[in-house]
Each structure stands twice: as C-alpha cells, then as structure tokens.
Write a structure and sequence with these properties.
The chain is α/β, with parallel strands linked by helices. 39% of the residues lie in helices and 13% in strands. The protein folds into four domains: 138 residues, BRCT domain (Rossmann fold, 3-Layer(aba) Sandwich); 88 residues, DNA polymerase, domain 1, CATH 1.10.150.110; 51 residues, 5' to 3' exonuclease, C-terminal subdomain (DNA polymerase, domain 1), CATH 1.10.150.20; 195 residues, 2-Layer Sandwich (Beta Polymerase, domain 2). The chain contains 20 helices and 14 strands. The strands form four sheets. Strands 6-8-11-10-9 form a five-stranded mixed sheet, sandwiched between helices. A hairpin with a 4-residue loop joins strand 13 and strand 14. The chain is globular, with a radius of gyration of 27 Å.
Amino acid sequence: MDPLRMADLSPRKKRPRQTGASMSSPSQDVKFQDLVIFILEKKMGRSRRAFLMELARRKGFRVESELSDSVTHIVAENNSDSDVLEWLQAQNIKASAQLELLDVCWLIECMGAGKPVEVTGKHQLVVRKDNSANANTEPQKTPLLAVKKISPYACQRRTTLNNCNQIFTDALEVLAENYEFRENEGSYLAFMRAASVLKSLPFTIISMKDTEDIPCLEDKVKYIIEEIIEDGECSEVKAVLNDERYQSFKLFTSVFGVGLKTAEKWFRMGFRTLSKIRSDKTLKFTQMQKAGFLYYEDLVSHVTREEAEAVSVLVKEAVWAFLPDAFVTMTGGFRRGKKTGHDVDFLITSPGITEEEDQPILLKVINLWERKGLLLYYDLVESTFEKLKLPSRKVDALDHFQKCFLIFKLHHQRVDSGKASQQEGKTWKAIRVDLVMCPYERRAFALLGWTGSRQFERDLRCYATHERKMALDNHALYDKTKRMFLKAESEEEIFAHLGLDYIEPWERNA
C-alpha cells in the first residue's frame, strides 16, 4: 500500500510543541517600518503566538520577539488593558502614552488588508467588569461569526489574490499535487476544494474554532490545519516534499510537453534528473518536448506582467494586420490580476468569425512571426466544431476552438520596465503563449472559460449542473428543463442565467 495512504489510516500522534525560537522563520521584508508589534504570550500560548508572528512577518509587518523601547503596538488575546498593564509592571516597564494596547482582532484585520488598518474602539483593550450587562464589554466574537454563510461553490465566493491563510493553502496544495501525480482524483479534488475555500476567507484562521461551519473541510484537512496551528508545520507535507517520487514528478512535468504518463514512464525507468533524460540516446521526444528542453530555463521562470503586456502588443499588432476589427483579450491569470504567470493566453474573435468555416488568421500570424524570427515553436490545433452537439458533461473537457500553443521569442527591449530575465549575452526570452480563435457568438462563454481559475470554472459548471439543471462549457449554456440554448453577449448575462451574482475576474482566484 502507498505509505501516504497508510499514514492516512493511522491515528494521528501528538508531537511535542515547538518553541517560539524553533518556529521562527528567516527575516521577511518589512513593508511598514514605523510600526513595531509585540505579541503578548499571556493567555494566548507559545504556539499560537509564534504562529501569529510568522503570519504577520509574511505580510510585511515588523514583529519583535522581545519587548523593547522600539515597540509601538502590543497585541493581546483574552486580556483586558489592566491585565496587560499589570504584566508590564511585573516586567518593570512603564507604558507610555504612545504605546497602543490592542486586541488581536486588530492584527488579524491588518493581515487581511495587507497593511495597517485604523485603530477604532473595537480594537482597544477594555477593563473587564464582572457581571456587567454593558454590551460594549462583551468578548470579541470570532471573525467567522461576522461572515455570511460560506458557499461550497467557488462561483458563489469572491476570492481575491489577498490570501489570509497562505500557510494552510500552500500545505494543502502540496498534498493535492501529490495526489494528482498519483492519479487519485478524489483526494486531489478534496484538498483543492479545501484550499479554495480558505483562500476566500477575509480573516486568518488562528484556532480550530474558526473552522466551524466552513464547508469542504474534511476531517483529514482539519487535522492538517490543527497541526499547523499547533506546530507551525505539517509532518505529512514535509514527508511529501522529501519524497523522491514527488520530487521527480514535479521536475519532469515542469518540462513543456511532459504529462503524467511520460513522467511515470521516466520515473519507472530510473531517471531522477533532467540531464540524464536529455543525454539518454534510447528515449524519443515529441517536438513539443524537444522545445521544452531547448528553452527550459526560460520557460520555468515566471512571466512578469511587463513581459505579458509586451507580448500583448505584438499579438494585437499581428492579428490586426490581417483582421482589423478583431477583439484580442488577454485571459488566464493575468486577467485575474496576477503579477506573474507561467504563460500568456489570448482570446481572439471578430464579428466575421463563425463556426462554420476554418479561419486562416492564426496561420497568417504564425507565418508573419516566422518571417520575423519571433517564433521558436508552434502547434496549431484546428477547430472541431463539427463534433459539438451539447455542452460537455465533463467539467474539465477541452473545448473545440481553433488554437495555437507556441513559444514566442520576446526581445528585452520590448519590455518597458527592463525587468525581463536576462542571461549574459542573451537579448531575448522564450515565453509560452496560447492563442485561441473563438466564433463571435461564443465569445462570452469562451472568455469566461479561459479566464479561470481552474477551481472556479469547475465549481461554476458543477453549480450549473447540480443546482440549475443546466450544462455549461466554453461554448454554450444549455437549459435541460427548457431544452434550449441560452444566448449571452457577456459574462454578466451568463451569471444572470445561472441566478448568480456577478463575480469580477479579479475575484475568481479560487
């Protein structure tokens, strides 16, 4: 049996709690120099204090391990101001008028906003009065109680790039990826759903009580969250990151054109490094894989927003040279507001583009770039609309549009910021680009489908199927009850057909 599966079945052993020193992380970049925070351990506990310190430092806050004259804000949990003042007195420290004594809810709001928030009355510590009926002295409610009921569907949640729970979602995504490598779709989806929900939360989970009533958090997920809260890390994640199979699959699939089947084959053949694979004379590579190896260093580096915008200018220039009325839209992660990505996707359409005839535009663009020496590799996939009858029942099904997967040669001078990755003596960078040619009447569905994220799209289609008795894909929306296709000129109309509030692209980072 798979050792990870065995670990799933075995009872979880409690590990000794780590000290604050052992949990400390390397120094993070400090964004807010004038604000110095000290988190009081009293009534909070050492593990939770260390956990909050780590989270705050990740967000760019300066957090001191020891109390000093430089501290401007003392944060406490379950303490009144008199409790904190008594503690300061016991340390022979006098509280100055400039020193803020605040409840932990202030720090949580700061981390959620990614910057210091204004101190209000609800953040101030108050003197505890026994048997008081004053509502203002009631204990602070947990963040979850102030949040509306959370939907299990990502298409009913607004998920920005401001992830308040990255320490948890990073761990869950490592485990999900490991299950994907093992082709265990059920476990993969369970961990991805859990990570997706946590990304949408407007607050940071600091105790297991905060996980109550949050959907998609199965028992195993909660065990992982609890372990991270208590120990600052997850033992199973550490085991996966050190697992030879996981490391090999992660490495092999980083090559353009290499999927799970090929990665499995190479691993079973005993390969563990790309250099050994490249030099082996018995292996046969596809043209896509050959290009993936040839431009590997460039393709595994992140594409910046500046580089994506430079590519966008060149794509529009080329398309408009042959189709002046074309709409060219950058999709994918960059449309969702991300600053970096692995490739750049574009959706191309025009009122004159229909699904009845093949379009020569992409081939003309390819020929133009070849003449200019800008094309390093391409794979043109023709439209298959003749096979299309109804929206696919598969939530991850490929669409039928004409598309081209290519590697573009971007010269550094095309990047205005000058931030393009440069190797000594090299004046260009290889960048992955996907071009999708869409019939005009399908443009709203195609734009929605190609914007992502993957989990958002999956949940949107599941919602259509299970809640609305409809079928949605990149081509159309079909109402099974009325037995008719529903037309849409925009993404907003598709959401309206589904009875959903419209979610902006930058809120689909599920």
